[in-house]
Q: What sequence folds into this?
């Protein structure tokens, strides 16, 4: 958790066309209410959404859903508390200049009774700050040879902005296992910052730290980083899913960072020398959750906490999940360039362009958004989907339908052009409601390489017939 570089990236609004049904008209009117309405809608989503079911080809190797009575601490089989202002014998102020003292008190780290973890910074009458920092007992999180590791969490950042947020520094990140017990070998052993945020900005930073400090092949202390903005609701106003995929099935090996299913930053092994990469990746990692106050990163954006900073705003964590995908044995063929993994869940609302599509809140497991109001002739485009060198032959989509009796249609996959013939499809009618979800498989023609993927929707009736939450592919 150091000082990542990168500038916030904006998210262009989606263009909506005229609706063709009463349901479409209602959703479109809601969509015109803007960000404030979106934030209010997000606040109604279930905070205690269950972690998503692993997609085909993935195995869950760790999960904490933070279920338990309100006011209790974390499960110490899963987590260790870091306390004080440093590791034993480690750098002062956790090596970052932050000013709080970490505690194991439930005033700083506690379950809320609704399936969430709260890490809450507090200030006492003397002006001293306390907060919480926990790390997994396990230090063995890494992908198998030729496989992948995905580490993700659904988090609402402290809901505080402006002057009241000065000094806040929430983070979800990982450190290389050799750091535990040594505390002097950073950044060579590697650090993966999946989510960092400062000063209540609507910005998610992701960074890899490695090499030597200062400078070195990884530009320390900044690291190799990038940033993006939370869309729909701000990072502070609602839950978002922050994820890292470490992929040993590609050559060069790469580590990808995602916000709500969209890959916005990738670090490849050939960006640094082989020794630097090996030192940072030839071992497992452990996961850390914390809210720091002050330090170098907030300092770069206006400074640490002062008398105007409001204590008591927690980082709220719905779940932390670690998934693993077995490899095919080496990944020696360099894949074409691309920024979406065909074999991990692609969130439907992360489209690059669309026609007739409206994102809306979902109550499906994991929360977030689906795309709705889908009828014949509608489509959504997802650029740069990487299928690798082993052919995909299956398509899976998470869908729901409240279509009227007799209304149905096809969910189709086309590659590179909407005018190309579908490589596969499945038919769908009413599933029991617009939020009654099921995962539907379909066979597809064999696909390798990197392609732009179109989801197209065909129906003999003009009515809406499907919602889509996510989709992926399988072998």
A:
């Amino acid at each position: 958790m150091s000082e990542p570089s990168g500038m916030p990236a904006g998210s262009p609004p989606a263009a909506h066309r005229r609706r063709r049904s009463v349901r479409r008209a209602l959703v479109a009117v809601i969509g015109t209410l803007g960000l404030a309405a979106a934030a209010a809608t997000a606040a109604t989503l279930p905070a205690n959404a269950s972690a998503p079911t692993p997609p085909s080809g993935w195995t869950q190797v760790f999960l904490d859903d933070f279920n338990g009575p309100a006011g209790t601490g974390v499960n110490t089989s899963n987590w260790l508390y870091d306390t004080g202002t440093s590791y034993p014998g480690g750098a002062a102020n956790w090596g970052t200049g932050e000013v709080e003292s970490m505690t194991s008190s439930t005033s700083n780290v506690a379950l809320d009774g609704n399936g969430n973890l709260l890490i809450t910074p507090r200030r006492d009458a003397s002006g001293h700050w306390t907060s919480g920092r926990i790390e997994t007992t396990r230090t063995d999180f890494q992908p198998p040879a030729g496989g992948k590791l995905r580490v993700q969490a659904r988090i609402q950042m402290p809901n505080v902005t402006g002057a009241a947020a000065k000094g806040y520094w929430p983070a979800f990140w990982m450190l290389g296992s050799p750091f535990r017990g040594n505390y002097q070998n950073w950044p060579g052993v590697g650090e993966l910052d999946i989510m960092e945020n400062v000063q209540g900005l609507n910005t998610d930073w992701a960074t890899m730290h490695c090499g030597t400090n200062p400078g070195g092949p990884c530009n320390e202390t900044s690291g190799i980083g990038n940033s993006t903005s939370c869309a729909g609701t701000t990072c502070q106003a609602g839950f978002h899913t922050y994820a890292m995929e470490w992929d040993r099935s590609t050559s060069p090996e790469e580590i990808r960072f995602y916000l709500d299913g969209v890959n916005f930053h990738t670090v490849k092994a050939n960006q640094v020398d082989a020794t630097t990469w090996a030192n940072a990746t030839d071992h497992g990692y452990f996961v850390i959750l914390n809210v720091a106050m002050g330090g170098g990163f907030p300092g770069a954006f206006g400074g640490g906490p002062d008398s105007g900073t409001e204590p008591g705003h927690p980082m709220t964590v719905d779940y932390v999940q670690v998934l693993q995908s077995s490899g095919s044995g080496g990944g020696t063929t360099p894949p074409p360039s691309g920024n979406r993994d065909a074999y991990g869940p692609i969130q439907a609302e992360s489209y690059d362009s669309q026609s007739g599509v409206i994102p809306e809140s979902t109550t499906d497991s994991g929360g977030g958004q689906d795309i709705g109001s889908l009828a014949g002739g509608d489509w959504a485009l997802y650029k740069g989907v990487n299928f690798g060198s082993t052919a995909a032959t299956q398509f899976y989509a998470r869908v729901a339908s409240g279509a009227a009796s007799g209304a149905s249609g096809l969910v189709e996959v086309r590659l590179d052009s909407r005018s190309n013939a579908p490589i596969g499809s499945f038919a769908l009618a009413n599933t029991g409601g617009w939020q009654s979800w099921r995962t539907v498989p379909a066979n597809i023609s064999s696909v390798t390489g990197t392609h732009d993927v179109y989801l197209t929707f065909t129906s003999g009736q003009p009515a809406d017939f499907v919602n889509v939450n996510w989709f992926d592919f399988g072998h």
